[in-house]
Amino acid sequence: MSFFSFGQSAEIDVVLTDAETRKKAEHKTEDGKKDKYFLFYDGETVAGKVNVTLKNPGKRLEHQGIKIEFVGQIELYYDRGNHHEFVSLVKDLARPGELTQSQTFDFEFTHVEKPYESYTGQNVKLRYFLRATVSRRLNDISKEMDIVVHTLSTYPELNSSIKMEVGIEDCLHIEFEYNKSKYHLKDVIVGKIYFLLVRIKIKHMEIDIIKRETTGTGPSVYHENDTIAKYEIMDGAPVRGESIPIRLFLAGYEMTPTMRDINKKFSVRYYLNLVLIDEEERRYFKQQEITLWRKGDVVRKSMSSQATIGAQRFEGSKSSVSSVLDLKCRA
């Protein structure tokens, strides 16, 4: 990226020290496309070089200082003028003066706190980036480089099963059970559905995975529901005493870990939505929240402190999720 001013111009390039070996991760951009970015975790050091290349050799470039920033920020799409920064680190690379030739500056942000996962949603974006700036009187020269952050968690100590009985009085009584309430992103949801009483003619049954993104607070709260997956359980009428197994693989779907009240700006939650449709096309449904977490592929020493932090942030349930609730009917 080139920037021009009177007499002299320069191009800035940011290069990470471990660019050749650092893993990259795909991340969805605001326009829905996918790009690959360098992947970091909480507590990792971010280091590299800033190359300032003069476009017109022989001419000097006066500046008011050169710096690099590491920024973590949240942008709400309905409030684009305000960027909410939750991480803001600055390193001064050069004092005010002039450059007579192209120059390289080293930088290092040691053990940087990156508390949240990178996220691009319907109404909100959470991003991390490096921004190198050559400050000038009339116009600054700057360059940004985005990175992606994944938050890792250890296996939750408490991970009880979900047991629920749902029904319509004297018409339908179903008991369903999922093997646990917290799943990592490549996990398998295993469960069973038991039909204890069937007096209505059900022709179809499915389980949906719903992602609910919530932004804003108070009266300015926005909810966006997105159906991530549909899993057909049954096509045909069940009979009393019948049981149907469920086995749903999560690895094939694009999901993030559950994100609760991130910097008091937004949340991302996931639900299992049980849907029954009778022969008169009436829909009966019941939702149950599940927690998703990211499991590290390889346990590394540099991840140990981050994993501990992730485990502390992970909300453990104190008892099994078990209840008797009525199915809601949607005509």
From TrEMBL:
Keywords, alphabetical: Protein transport, Transport
Pfam families in alphabetical order: Vps26
InterPro entries per record: Arrestin-like_C, Vps26-related
BP-aspect Gene Ontology terms: intracellular protein transport
Family the entry assigns: Belongs to the VPS26 family.
Name of this protein: Vacuolar protein sorting-associated protein 26B
Organism whose genome encodes this protein: Oncorhynchus tshawytscha (Chinook salmon)
